[in-house]
Amino acid sequence: MTNVSYHISNLLEKMTSTDKDFRFMATNDLMMELQKDSIKLDEDSEKKVVKMLLKLLEDKNGEVQNLAVKCLGPLVSKVKEYQVETIVDTLCTNMLSDKEQLRDISSIGLKTVISELPPASTGSTMTANVCKKITAQLTGAIGKQEDVSVQLEALDILSDMLSRLGATLYSFHSSILNCLLPQLTSPRLAVRKRAIIALGHLVLTCNGNIFSELMEHLLAELKRNESTSTTRTYIQCIAGISRQAGHRIGEHLEKIIPLIVQYCNVEDDELREYCFQAFESFVRRCPKEIGPHIPSVMGLCLEYITYDPNYNYDNEEEEEEEEMMETGNGEDEEQESDDEYSDDDDISWKVRRSAAKCLEAIVSTRHDLLQDFYKNLSPVLISRFKEREENVKADIFCAYISLLKQTLPIQSWLHASDSAGKEDIPLTMLQNQVPNIIKALHKQLKEKSIKSRQGCFSLLTELANVLPGCLADHIPALVPGIVFSLADKSSSSNMRIDTLSFLHVLLCNHQPEVFHLHIKTLVPPVVTCIGDPFYKITSEALLVTQQLVKVIRPLDKPGAFDVKPYVKDLFSGTLKRLKAADIDQEVKERAISCMGQIICNLGDHLSSDLQSTLKIFLDRLKNEITRLTTVKAVTLIASSPLKIDLRPILGEGFPILASFLRKNQRALKLSTLTALDILIKNYSDSLKPAMIESVLTELPALISENDMHVSQVAIVFLTTLAKVYPSSLSKISGSVLSEIFQLVHSPLLQGGALNAIIDFFQALVITKTANMGYTELMKQLTGPIYSLSSAGPSVTLHKQAYYSVAKCVAALSIACPKEAAGVVNQFIQDVKSPKSSSAVKMLAFLSLAEMGRTMNLSAQKELKMVILEAFASPSEEVKSAASYALGNISVGNLKEYLPFMLKEIGSQPRRQYLLLHSLKEVISSSPADGLKPYVEDIWALLFKHCECAEEGTRNVVSECLGKLTLVNPSQLLPRLKKQLSSGSPHARSTVVTAIKFTISDQPQPIDRLLKGCIGDFLKTLQDPDLNVRRVALAMFNSAAHNKPSLIRDLLNTVLPHLYNETKIRRELIREVEMGPFKHTVDDGLDVRKAAFECMYTLLESCLDRLDIYEYLNHVEDGLKDHYDIRMLTFIMLARLSTLCPNAVLQRLERLIEPLRATCSTKVKAGSVKQEFEKQDELKRSAMRAVAALLTIPEVEKSPVMAEFSSQIRANPEMASLFESIQKDSASLSTTESMEMS
Fold this sequence. Notes:
Layout: H1 2-15, H2 20-35, H3 43-56, H4 62-76, H5 81-95, H6 100-116, H7 125-144, H8 148-165, H9 173-180, H10 189-205, H11 208-224, H12 228-249, H13 253-264, H14 269-285, H15 287-290, H16 294-304, H17 314-322, H18 328-340, H19 348-365, H20 370-383, H21 390-407, H22 426-441, H23 450-466, H24 475-487, H25 493-508, H26 519-530, H27 535-552, H28 564-579, H29 585-602, H30 609-622, H31 627-638, H32 647-660, H33 666-682, H34 689-696, H35 708-724, H36 734-744, H37 751-766, H38 774-791, H39 799-815, H40 817-832, H41 838-854, H42 863-870, H43 876-892, H44 894-907, H45 912-925, H46 928-931, H47 935-945, H48 951-965, H49 969-979, H50 985-996, H51 1006-1018, H52 1026-1042, H53 1051-1060, E1 1069-1074, E2 1077-1082, H54 1085-1101, H55 1108-1118, H56 1123-1139, H57 1141-1146, H58 1148-1159, H59 1169-1189, H60 1199-1210, H61 1212-1236
Antiparallel strand pairs: 1-2
Helix pairs in contact: 1-2, 1-3, 2-4, 3-4, 3-5, 4-6, 5-6, 5-7, 6-8, 7-8, 7-9, 8-10, 9-10, 10-12, 11-12, 12-14, 13-14, 14-19, 16-19, 19-21, 20-21, 20-22, 21-23, 23-25, 24-26, 25-27, 26-27, 26-28, 27-29, 28-29, 29-31, 30-31, 30-32, 31-33, 32-33, 32-34, 33-35, 35-37, 37-39, 38-39, ...
């Protein structure tokens, strides 16, 4: 301890030296000491150090002063509170000194101290006390100071303090406000500006009364309109407040907007600029409140975006026609007029720029007005592309690009709007305006100004992305501009990169033929860019070249275009980059891909160069960094219809590819398997058995349930091998096959991987390879299931495995029809035998089902009886397998089985449920034409059962009805609709559920009819019966998820009823006595849950049709509801944070409370384990929502959020939960990006 004191007193002594260098070094050493965490000062040293540093602030030497100020930062956290107060007092006094240098250094000192104060959430009282001291002094200084520079510094420090520690100063807020308001009329504009910034920080944390006082003052002053200069300031102030705390200004907008609209008409350009800036901040910050005023604001913007009083654009139009005939004469006239009015005085461009920015804000926030924008706004913006001020032009381009971006997402429901009038669709309107856009832009592509050209290219790139193919007729107008920017010596590298990336988009989105006339002019500048020394230009040019090659010679259609003259240039340019070893990684990869494309499309023109180039590919395969790209390029070349000769590299290349299959890089394995597959298909005659064996030894390790996709691709490769190279199959070691059989018995097998295995078995059985014939394969497939019965119940297979085995059995039987009959008999005997275990019976029925679907089993006379007997089996699994079998066998032979099934349904009430399931299989799997003759009978039968009391049966009936309606919608849909008026709630719920089964995510003939009548079915949302409302919500949810176009236009009428179902109904809550306990049951819970699920689905599919504020009201209620619903609303809140952050910000205070309540609840000590788990899950979910809220930009400005996050940090349990959630989301995003690579 004494050691430190001694060292420090030594330094302090040196600081009094007359030599400035000593003073400097000693202060520097002190700084080093203070920055150590371990240093502790005793009281005496503290006093001396503080006194010394304050003295050094007045040192004659500037450098020493600067160092002394820097020492204050670390010192604050090392000394006691009263010492910090001493420092602050001295600094504040010095601020008011007459010496300018001392004032400056003191204000820097104060800023340093404020930035080092611990935040209030740490619980330290020091911060609050010190801030109060500073604030009192500063407000005094601002109020009575004559010297402007002191005022400016004081305002600056006050802003700093309010932004960092605003909430700590709440007791001073009112005095700060009273001190700041008079400064808005200060004669110095800089003072006004800083006062506005300080007010912006104040409104974030002040309470409602102070905010209202401030707004009333501003409104009163705006109405008084004393002088234009103060009015400007007040409008700037309102815009500043709105930018910082938009959610609070919303309620005052009604009064503010008319005033600002009125000031737009005053002849003062600066005032107008500030008015538009205010409008822009309102549009971005209070989207709901500004809604009604959008038309008038937009009208003003459109009027003033063309406001250029001192320039006559008409001359230009004439000049274009005369092609600038007169030269010398015109210049003299200009000289004379210059004296009267200089361009520097003209600030009308500021008005135009702020109007353009405001329009961009409107376009990007009001998706729903898109058609209106294309009608009124788009033509005006296009006419302003000729703007003469570069900055304004950039903003006009930005606004238009924003409009194009808004148009993109609509393409998903394009096919649904065919029935609407063609003209209204934004894309059609845009299509009609393309010629005007090109007319306005194509001349600018050759202007000197790089900024304008870049703007034009970004706009055209966006246009080509939004409407692929729309520029086809305008290519001749665009090519000269593209070539000009690529070849122009004065172009910056960014200019060239932008031009190349536009050219790439253009080539990708248009038909090859439209470019063929221009290839001659396009190729030379692109080849020059490949040789550019700057790697980014090279890499962009290689991308373009790759696309150009596809355009010059598209392989999918015969072209009359002569490619010969261009092959040499493109090839040699790319080859130079392919050979270079010392270039950027991205360029290497793109050179490989580009060369791959050249060989694939133009390989027949390369003659002698081909071999040497392929050798380079071989080298690139051996290099770890480039191998993946090379594998993809080789795949491309191998699949080329030009039949490129790859023999020179196959011998050495095949083993290298085989070795890639053991590398621990998933993307490489997948690409390699695809490459091998193509090579075996197209080059089987050039491959030697040894090459193929090298690959086969690697395969067993790839086939496992841990990675279904890799397994699938590996099995597809084996199938190709079986078809192309059957002799190699004898080499398939038992291990590959046993892995495949293991996969068949895995519960995870389904979809693509299962289909791949089925194809493989079919291909394998046809090759008639030894030990792999029909009987051997069948034994391996079904063996485990037969052995189960003898081995006892210890080994069990998952239910999914039985379905997989049955599908494979059926596939093998179809491939070997001769063997099939025997197998069918065997299965029927299995089912009849009383000794068979239920597993064997289940497999037999499922296999009969899969075989019956494609073969006619009518020869088996006893089959029907066998199935009906099985319906009485004690095992549920066997019953459902038998019902599945009956359905599928009927599909293979409708004539014989369907009438039998309908008769049984009518006469066997006890087996109805199983028989209806069979009927469902028939309706789902049979072709519509086959079913048509039976529709009436089935329909009549189903309607008999639609009022069944058993809900399970009703659901099967609905599914049958729905799927049957798809067979003949125009006749059957009206019948369903008629049934809506039925008196029985059961019948109504069956009909509504049937509609749910008619909606699928693929376009279907019924869609048009459904769109016309779905509104009638949705009226059941108001049905008196609770259950009917629940199924109506499920149907609505299905429509919103699978075909939003059906319900988009009905939302205005449907939403109120949907929201109505989210409310808790007291009359549906009842108490049930369970022995000594009372238990509450809420019958309305399922309906509420269904309603919230619908709300969540609407977020994804119809966001632009929702009033998000109304929506949030109901989310807010859900946050306080039952466990299940809170879980749902937390997920909704997280989604809303990314979809519409501004709206969530405005409601933050109300949304945080329920989250805080959930995170801080404690479970009663004696509760059951489930209760603890449930509460944990809730807290995790709530924390996820909090983490999502924290990603909203500017959320940290909200005092409520700041307080909550400090509460989370302070509570160890919440803090650890929050950290684990953040880790989860971080690992999620990295795995996603890894999957992509």
